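Notes, Module 5: Reading structure tokens.

Key idea: the token line is not a picture. It is a compressed description, and you learn to read it the same way you learned to read a sequence, by spotting repeated patterns. We will look at two proteins. The first is printed below with its tokens.
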Amino acid sequence: MRGSSLSLTFVLGVLLLGGTSFGAAPATAPSTGFKAGFAERDITPEVGMEQPGGYVKAFHRTFHDPCKVRASVFDDGKTRVAVVGIDALLIRRQTVAPIRAAIHEKTGIAPEAILIAASHDHSAGPIGMILPGEFDHASPLVQELAYKKSSCANAGYLARVQQAVMDAVVEADSKRTDCRCAVGKGREETVSFNRRLRMKNGLSFSHPGVGNPDIVGPAGPIDPDVVVLGAWDPKTGNLTGCVVNFACHATTGPGGISADYIYYLERAIRGVTGQQNANVVFVNGACGDITQVDNQSRSGSRQSGEAAALKVGGRVGAEAARVLLSVSDSAGSLAPVAYKDRILSIKRRAPSPEHLARAMEIVSHKQPPAGTAFVEWTFAKETVLLDARIKEEPVAPVEVQAIQVGPLVILANPAEYFCQYGLDIKAAGKFPFTMISELTNDNVGYVPTEEAFGPHGGGYETRLTSHSNLEITAGRQIADALIDMASKFTPGPVPQPPPVKEAAKPWAYGSLPPQRD
């Protein structure tokens, strides 16, 4: 692992053997007056429920590992914020609003100070894509396409997730205690890849196929940053919890219901630090075009399944653990804590009359065809659903949010946000540490770069669907808003290790002259 003293072999051994305690912070450290609390809840769906992640229905058949809500609350004595990660494909604002209201009623935390980020887990529960009753206003054909032919949320599961998020944040708030905190940044650049590739025909394809000889090179960057906020008990020195940010689709698919690679990321951090009860909150970065699949690989090794989940989670978790061990001695207060929230109004792109007419003709047969015609039918279905959505909501409310915890700023948006925008936001900011949090507080689908819509663009992320349909400039509008919001904050100081109080005397057996006889 580049830049890390922890080998992957060592970390995997820790994962399998249960872990050993390393590098605990000094137990004599004084209280900082800064408080943090953590909690988690189980939201594992039942076998047989819908599995989200595609444009048509699929169902869970087996179980691999639990899905969770992971919550954290940070308090500088004046302001509290909640940062929540959920093992879910996405979360809709209709689901988020009552959660925030309930948390505010029970804790007093401002709704705008509550960040709820989906990990984009394709192996999680039925929390989307279509919500119950969402297309009740539409024609019988549209309702048939929405409820019978599309991936849908389960009303009972949605209610369970809402309760779990509320309970986790309320518990995390109640468990706030004095702690020592620090933020650090590592680098992991071997497990994530831009899935859009330049092709010899001048276009960009999404997943053109591993080893395709027509691939010229990546159509976009990756973001290798592993940004970590850690909290330690000042009395015991134990890690109580952390927030980890990395940009990569959770699409390794270890098999069955699962938190995907986040499961192994959590195990790696807990194993290396020896703190099996430490809470690990994960927020995904700008990964709308980033996955674990290396389409340029010449190796025949599998790039999905158990091995891929272990590799991605193990390596990112190992790097996060390295960062935690590196910054634990300097941990202290991360004041100030602050938040900002803004709603942008962004137009939706409407299909042309000719596009819509052709789509209506295709879906009138209702039964999806087999083979390559299935793709055409699927996007026709999505076009018809989009037309119904636009009639109700031609302009999308797009919430952007900024959370500050000392020298760290978390900049959140509800998109599957292309990586380049995340890098642009980081480069424009003045904070030493920045987390980009996508699919947060809502879902507005893919938001590609403007270049992706150009003559050398392409890929399914640019296609019109009921979820991905914002105007071409949406990504830049979101980036500009987040950059502006972050500029209104003043970064807090980065905690430093205590200075040496008194120069130590040389060791008696270390200061001897060389012996030559």
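Here is the second protein, with the sequence above and the tokens below, as before.
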Amino acid sequence: MSAAQGDHYIRVDMTKQEATAVPFPEKWRVLGGRALSARILLEECNPKCDPLGPENILVLAPGVVSGTSAPTSGRLSVGCKSPLTNAIKEANVGGNPGQDLMKLGYRCIVVTGRPADREKRWGLEVDEKGVRLVSADQHKGLWNYALCEKLYERYPKNASFISVGPAGEMCLSGASVACTDTEGRPARHAGRGGVGAVMGSKCLKWVSVDSGKRPVRAPAHRKEFTSYAKDYTKAYREGELFFKYGTSAVVPVANMLNTFPYRNRTEGQSPDVGTLDGKNIVASFEERGGGMHNCMTGCIVQCSNIVHDKDGEYKTSALEFETLTLLGSNCGVKSWEDVADFDRLCDELGLDTIETGAAIAVYMDSGGLEWGDVEGMHRLFQEIAQGTELGKAIGNGAAAVGRLRNHARVPVVKGQALPAWDPRPLKATGVTYATSPMGADHTAGLIINPGLKPDEYAQASQEIQIINAAVDSSGFCQFLQPTLTDLAHYYSHYLGDEVTPQKIADMGWQCLQDEWAFNDGAGWTLDDDDLPDVMKKEGVGPDHSLVFDVPKEVILQARTQRFAPRDSLFNTKAAG
């Protein structure tokens, strides 16, 4: 029997409060993660549905090779119709739940419906005995860390959890879905697009996954798979380790490139770059403890930093570049330690740090709070937790704050806030923001190359969107940077069938096609594939001369014209 045959997936009907395991369809055999989520949503979800209504579908899908011995391959895709963009969404997350689900032979969890009693809370248990919905009323309103402490009193220490905090329960559009890391901390978040609000709308507070002593999944061609994984790991570790100290280390480079947004993107550089630089976090390890670690079992990237406070007590992980930018520089905050506090609060409440930082910056820009007012920002988090009108607006994201404050400077695409990487100096990334089915999302296709020529923008954006869709479908971490050929080797050895690099590229393209088709059904058109006027009219850099000035016809090429993949996309890291 080849790998993946005999697998099941879990269907959860929240209306009937039923959870069942059913055979995984053969037609989805080569699909996982993002591609599987997109296909399920396209086939089963009404694209015109209310994102917070019973018709929306929540998909929790590990990648195809998650749960195997392949390095850094256990990521989980969280998919649904987004309440933030009113379009399809996939948010990718690390931690251990994706691996544990696959070890149990579950290719995904599909959550439909909504309970009649919206005040009750439910948990989903997944283990070797099967799947069950259980009451979670006792966990209602708990913040993520306190929730996981309670859950570990009930479940084994090697179990992993997927959960939402109060923001998800309140169905705030900036809400995230948390996954526990190797230490059992709910510090890994599927942040973008408000996926936590959809999980919360279904009154599903948490999912526990206990794989017991199940071994890693066995590939069809065990010897070849193991050999390739070994060669790949060796090549990665002998190469340039870009993420040795996490993404926070890129702060100085981003500032130099005018993509370290300051004060709601009115500037591309921050005067506080020195005190927000990730090197300060690394320097703190010697005195306070903490350090770099792997967020999931089998990770060889180890980009996650564990941040301790001045007393040597755990505060948060991982404090990443995006968070230092959006909750730091973009709000005029000067100290990385203050940003660490806000990062922990976002993880506790279950909020996307990008969307929350952008929302607070819009509030500051509109005169609601002084730039860099750290105490005022703490009060805003209290408002979010209390569910006040202002708190809900902040929790619903930048566009919601713009509407509340009647403020025009709101850097969003399809309702979702721009990430740290700015489209004005990085114009090919701007093409991704405009054309991606996900809206403004750097994980959809980031290109850090300000030297590209205008006639290269569309192809560069399309290629990276295809690769990232394929990687997000595989279970691998994007930071591992596998090529199409690497993915083809892993798929072939694992499934027992020949999967060519071109087929991997085609699957990535088909994933995008499925997502665009969903968005078309939701009412989005090619006219909406654009960036806001603030990115076109207000510049950054020397003399504020860098604006997003890519012609619309060039933007649309990334979506409407299939380019032939270049040879560089087929290189491989491994020798096999």
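Summary for the second protein:
- The mean pLDDT is 96.
- DSSP finds 21 helices and 17 strands in the chain.
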